[in-house]
Write a structure and sequence with these properties.
heterodimer; A: 310 residues; Rossmann fold; Alpha-Beta Plaits; B: mainly alpha; 80% helix
């Protein structure tokens, strides 16, 4: 294991009774990486995260955090992990700063540094105004932020977040994403989500889980985005593809085309200008599915039907 | 690490009105009992004088007081302990403990010591009130100390049993019922001994027997060991139950 690899999982499996939750999972995470764990409901995302944090023991396989084996020296390994579960583990009757002080102590922050650590993460998570309020009186968004603060108060090298933006309003989602992006520069972050756009905008790497297996593990930033266009007087496919410097154009029914491009804005501009000049009658111009979305849907297609998973 | 858990538990316990209500209610109950017993004692005093070995004020007033507290504990401890693990499991807070660098044994011991802080406060109320009698009369300090020891050991054993059921169950109410029934059975098991020829064993299993022995001022090491064994056994079982949450079966 190279020193830069902060988290490594090899051959991790876990069953619940006879149901397989995770099977043969391999993961490696380096400093500065934000890894998005995607999957349908019941694909094994939360189980994976619980195994990575030591909340659940795997049936087989090894998890190493900061070089420490989670099964052999759990205390040393857990010092390097910050974990935000799906439901933030908050003591509702505590004040925010009091709760964070307790979390710092629990994660073995030396007593003289506790106040500093709390002040730093209160500041980072934008909790300064509410730091003396009872957690039960905070809005869902603030509670989620306290949950994130709890996970970073001891400056862990690995940060594990289970659906960090769930239940937040759009403004809060933006704030939390910005926070995760900042954290991702110094820590290694694993986050689970079923929002593909979130993974697209936040993560440097994406792993797709399906039936507890890794079916996709790729660095993002490759591929492109698709643009859906529709015309009342559609041009020939050839004309359009010659006009555009794009990867591919395919014709759909009803005068609609799907263009796969690297630069969404530039392509849209070219199409708009051409449509006006050549009287194509532009009716639709919308961003289509991203490559990630296509891949995801393709890989998880066999269980698009509802009710297959819990 | 035990100290961190202990501090947190004490904080959490005394922040809510629950602990203060409990203390106030128990204080009211034992004060009432205390005055009633004194009243009875004074009424019977002339008759008692005629006996060869009359019971003193400690037997007549102080020990019944401890008896009332013991009875209150039977109902109180299940409620006090039920949330410790099963409530936190429901609220998803146990994951905070499980992902933290702390041993489960430290967690259980820390919680146990935290709950014992409220018990200790109750115990002090019981210890202090009889001392007021020292203004007017002498106390049998041996019996008094024995009774207090018995009460404290009872609190330890009951709290440990409560924590054990709380660690085992998914719902606080289930934990409370489990604890209550166990305590009741351990308390009353010697009833059967009245009808059986070989009653020794059952009576030795009964908390009541051992509690009574201590309140007679009999510092019996067997009785002390009995309570300590129950405490340690229940705490060990609680640690085992918590391990079950993460274990791969």
């Amino acid at each position: 294991m190279t020193p830069d690899v902060l988290l490594a999982a090899r051959g991790v499996s876990r069953r619940y009774g006879t149901r397989i939750a995770v099977q043969g999972l391999n993961l490696e995470l380096r400093r500065g990486e934000v890894l998005g764990l995607l999957g349908l409901n019941g694909a094994g995302k939360s189980t994976t995260l619980q195994i990575l944090t030591g909340v659940l023991a795997p049936h087989s396989g090894v998890v190493k955090i900061g070089g420490h084996d989670l099964a052999r020296s759990p205390l040393a390994a857990k010092r390097h992990v910050g974990y935000l579960p799906e439901i933030p583990p908050l003591y509702q009757d505590s004040q925010v700063d009091e709760y964070l002080r307790f979390c710092a102590e629990l994660h073995a922050v030396p007593p003289v540094q506790v106040e500093n650590a709390v002040a730093r993460c209160v500041n980072r998570c934008g909790l300064t105004e509410v730091s003396h309020r009872l957690i039960r009186n905070l809005s869902k968004g603030y509670q989620q932020r306290v949950g994130i603060a709890q996970a970073i108060v001891h400056e862990p090298s690995v940060l594990i977040l289970d659906e960090p933006t769930v239940g937040l309003d759009p403004a809060q989602i933006q704030e939390v994403r910005a926070l995760i992006r900042t954290l991702g520069r110094e820590h290694a972050v694993v986050l689970s989500t079923h929002l593909l756009a979130e993974a697209d905008s936040l993560c440097s790497r994406v792993v797709i889980l399906h039936h507890g297996r890794v079916v996709y593990d790729h660095v993002l930033g490759e591929g492109g985005r698709s643009l859906m266009v529709g015309f009342s007087a559609p041009p020939a496919l050839k004309e359009l593809s010659q006009l555009l410097n794009v990867r591919s154009v395919s014709m759909l029914a009803g005068g609609r085309f799907e263009c796969l491009t690297d630069d969404l804005a530039a392509t849209a501009e070219v199409i708009t200008v051409a449509a006006v000049n050549r009287h194509w009658g532009l009716q639709e111009l919308t961003p289509g599915k991203t490559t990630l979305e296509r891949t995801f849907l393709e890989l998880t297609r066999d269980h698009q039907g509802l009710g297959e998973h819990q | 690490m035990i100290a961190v858990v202990f501090k947190h538990e004490v904080h959490a316990l005394f922040r809510t009105p629950f602990a203060w209500w409990v203390l106030a209610a128990v204080q009211f109950l034992i004060a009432y009992q205390f005055l009633a017993q004194i009243d009875i004692f004074v009424q019977y005093l002339p008759k008692l004088r005629g006996l060869a070995q009359p019971p003193g004020v400690t037997q007549m007033v102080v020990i019944p007081l401890f008896g009332v507290t013991a009875l209150v504990l039977l109902f109180l401890l299940p409620v006090l302990t039920m949330h410790s693990f099963s409530g936190e499991r429901r609220a998803g807070i146990l994951r905070l403990w499980y992902s933290a660098p702390i041993r489960l044994s430290s967690l259980v011991l820390g919680k146990f010591c935290g709950l014992m802080s409220l018990n200790a406060a109750l115990w002090s109320l019981n210890a202090l009130m009889p001392l007021t009698l020292l203004w007017g009369t002498a106390l049998d300090l041996g019996t008094y100390t024995g009774g207090l020891l018995g009460l404290f050991l009872l609190m330890m054993a009951g709290t440990a049993i409560g924590l054990c059921f709380s660690a085992l169950s998914a719902q606080p109410a289930t934990a409370a019922i489990g604890t209550f029934v166990s305590l009741l059975v351990l308390w009353l098991i010697d009833w059967a001994s009245q009808f059986e020829a070989k009653a020794g064993l059952l009576s030795q299993l009964s908390m009541f027997t051992h509690f009574q022995r201590l309140t007679r001022g009999l510092l019996d090491s067997f009785s002390v060991a009995y309570f300590l064994l129950i405490t340690l056994g229940a705490l060990a079982l609680a640690v085992w139950a918590l391990h079950g949450d993460r274990r791969a079966l």
